[in-house]
Amino acid sequence: MYKILTFVLALISLNLFAQNYKPAPARLTTQWGEAVTPENAWQQYPRPQMKRSDWKNLNGLWDYSIQQKGAVKPAGFEGKILVPFCVESSLSGVGKPLLPEQELWYSKRFTVPQNWEKKEIILHFDAVDWETRVWLNGKLVGSHQGGSDPFQFNITPHLNKGEQELVVAVWDPTDKEMQARGKQTLDPKGIWYTAVSGIWQSVWLEPVSKGHIIDVYPVPDIDKSVVAFGLQSASLTGSHQLNIVVKNGGAIIKDTTFSFHNNFVLPLENAKLWTPETPELYHTTLTVKKRGQVVDQLETYFAMRKTSLIKDDNGYMRLALNNKPVFHLGTLDQGWWPDGLLTPPSEEAMMYDIIKLKEMGFNTIRKHIKVEPSRYYYMADSIGVLLWQDMPSGFLWPNHPSHVGHDDKEDWVRPQASAVQFEKEWKAIMDHLRFFPSIVMWVPFNEGWGQYDTKRITAWTRKYDPTRLVNSPSGWTDRGVGDVLDVHQYPGPGMGVVELNPGRSMVLGEFGGLGLVVKDHIWNPNKRNWGYKTYTEDAVLIREYTELMHNLSLMVKRGLSAAIYTQTTDVEGEVNGLITYDRKVIKIPETLLQKLHQPVYDPADGRVLFINQLKETDRPNIFHSLQEPPADWLTQPVQFQKSKQKIALKKEGNVYAYQDVDFGKEMPEGLGLKLYASGDVNIYINGVKVWSEDQVRIKRHYDDINLSSFLHLLKPWNNRVAVEAKSATQDVDFDFALYQWNK
Predict the structure, then answer these.
(1) At 6, is the secondary structure helix, strand, or coil?
(2) Which residues have C-beta within 8 Å of that of residue 39, sequence separation ≥ 6?
(3) Which whole number is the average pLDDT over 697-701?
(4) Could you give the dihedral angle defined by the CA atoms of residues 414, 430, 392 and 374, in that order, rounded to the nearest 10 degrees?
(5) What are the φ/ψ torsions at residue 295 (nearest 5 degrees)?
(6) Dihedral sign, CA of 338, 343, 346, 350?
(7) Lowest CB count within 10 Å: 211, 255, 427, 462, which one?
(8) pLDDT value, residue 130
(9) What was the pLDDT predicted at 419?
């Protein structure tokens, strides 16, 4: 009878909690957000890289109150908030902003399982934005600054008998200070999004013995067929025994025991290598014993893979996986959700994005200025996708020196205290994420956003983790360091100059951004909904995307090693996603995307030669006129100026230019054009218009245009390739160059 009554009371309690929860009004919702309840909100084990059998999830309904900054713990609370969703989100049930002059207070009561009595109890916060103070039973446990790195406290000394009271206070300056915050702002518009404050990833408890493993870091070496484990531990010595069982595909391939030490190497003969096509994982059990008694046991895993640079037969530096060139084709993935903001509504929702991108034919994701929950990276490891991991940017905006311009000669001088905090967070994020084999590249800086001391930060990142590539910065203000030269070009595509960057690989870290407005799937119909080019018809989007991919394919032949399309999904006012913000409409069919993407993965064979110039950095002779020429100028002799210099074109001006090309009898198998222009542009081959685009606004880098579909217009010996640009939208140094590809 007692058991039945207890069960009934538990059901009543759950129902009361459910009745106290209701999502705040949302402009858009996802199917997963619509299914969220206090009982199912993020119930999975949160740390798959180091999994123990005993744990307790504290996600669910907590009490909350918003108070003025500096106030003491409130005597009462305003209502319920669903953790781990931030206070600004719909799924939190609150949907209120937290201002810099305010603090967000939480309260949660819980009990510790009786069988944990002789254990140390660790309280985990996987992410809280930004400054956190924690009390247990009225005693201050500790504090933390940082919005994206996990932290924990040993709360054992502060436990009471029976029920515990956990109180958390959070202050978040958002965009009023220069802490790492990514794209959060108090005034969302353009590329800046709704702020995220307070707890936004899981909160949980874990019991451990006094002697236990704190961290596991496996480092594979495929060239030596070994994996080196680095452990951090507490109160474990050589008097303990460590047993390691390694499985692959369910079969035990290694079972060994030795005296405990923090660093050891396991040989692994005939290892199966991890790739996006074959994401082989070695699941591993670590068991620590003393005098035959289990002291600690956990599940972990590793993958055998290597990331590096490799020079191909044409001398281009390529991104390599397992000593073979692999082209990285991916999306800029910001990980925002209309109902959860930075917190995905569920694990299923998070997995949907990864799986869809693979179905579209991408093998890479650039995780853009956001750190996801640990389970995201486990999914990437398991599903098979290459990750570029950004550090969330920290700077002031707009018109502040912390935003470094593209042409600025010097980095920003970051204040000392801010630099110390930024580097502390970057190290903590790397410590947290370096376990995951899907991460192949670190990105400390994006464009000029808070970019400072680039050479030192890049060198430190490479030294701290020599097993991965470093991209610093991604876009804009290059300082000649890092493993890649990363260009951002919208819509592009474009790339850097190989000859000017010896030893580095050429990558296109952002391009595209083609927008499509999908009715009834817009965040705010009353605001500007935009892409770098915005369309209203599916067919136009598909046509333009097809051309982008066609242009990209020839660039691979001349050294491009990666391309990151903007972006996975729409985000608030940005409608340049391949999927709508609510994940309910895929704008281009997956099968078509696969077909369009395949050519960039084809072997980069043959050779590219620049036409009318010995190498890319030479200048070709360009014949040009700023006045409208005779009607037959596209094919006949005309009196144009001849120059090897770029052509200065004023706003609203026109330019007519050509190069004469002698191929002899051997026709090229590919033809490309590099263009720097503004205005309405037309390209002609021997008098036939082959390319046209209105309101071209090329900045910073040349656009590449693949003209290989028009090789039939070429003839032996003499040919004319002409470009006209009319009604320039800005002052511009007009220029174009030609190159050919032959197998």
Answers:
(1) helix
(2) 14, 17, 18, 60
(3) 91
(4) -160
(5) -95, -40
(6) positive
(7) 255
(8) 96
(9) 97
Where in the chain do CATH 2.60.120.260 domains reside?
Answer: 2-204, 608-742
CATH class of the domain comprising 2-204 = mainly beta
CATH class of segment(s) 307-605: alpha beta
- Quick one: which of 56, 91, 92 has its CA closest to 170? 92
How many Å apart are CA 726 and CA 653, to the nearest integer?
Answer: 6
Kindly tell me if the per-residue pLDDT of 149 is higher than 80. yes
Nearest to 196 by CA among 272, 106, 96: 96
Pick from 340, 285, 362: which is nearest to 571 by CA? 340
**DSSP SS3 for 539:** helix
Domain with CATH 2.60.40.10 in the chain: 212-302
CB 197 within 8 A of CB 88: yes
Owner of token pair 């084709």? 329
Residues 6+ apart with CB under 8 A from 339: 23, 26, 28, 29, 30, 33, 36, 89, 90, 91, 345
* Token pair for 130: 């930004």
What mean pLDDT value characterizes the chain?
A: 95
Q: What would the two tokens of residue 325 be?
A: 């060139």
With H, G, I as helix, E, B as strand and everything else as coil, classify residue 427.
helix
Cβ atoms of residues 211 and 435 within 8 Å: no
Q: Which of 281, 154, 181, 180 is nearest to 227 (CA)?
A: 281
Q: For 324-347, what is the mean pLDDT?
A: 98
The domain defined by 212-302 folds into: Immunoglobulin-like (2.60.40)
Q: For residue 205, what are its two tokens?
A: 């408890």
Q: At what angle do helices 347-359 and 374-383 cross, to 10 degrees?
A: 30
The DSSP code sequence of 587-633 is SS-HHHHHHHHHHHHS---SEEEEETSSSTTS---EEEESS---TTT
Helices (H), 272-366: 347-359
The pair phi, psi for residue 645, each rounded to 5°, is -100, 160
d(CA 685, CA 691): 9
Rounded to whole angstroms, the Cα distance separating 704 from 741 reads 14
To the nearest 10°, report the CA torsion of 542, 545, 547, 548. 180
Whether 580 and 570 have beta carbons less than 8 Å apart is answered as yes
Distance CA 405, CA 21 (A): 46
Q: With residue 288 as reference, give the H or E element that holds it.
A: strand 282-290
Contacts of 14 (CB under 8 A, 6+ apart): 39
Report d(CA 56, CA 519) in Å as an integer.
43
Dist CA 189 CA 191 (whole Å): 6
> pLDDT band at 5, cuts 50/70/90?
very low
Architecture of domain 608-742 in CATH?
A: Sandwich (2.60)
Q: What tens digit of pLDDT does each residue of 462-490 get?
A: 999 999 999 999 999 999 999 999 999 99
Tell me 393's DSSP state: P
Residue closest to 587 by CA, chosen among 553, 540, 550, 547: 540
Please report the pLDDT score of residue 17 as a whole number. Answer: 47
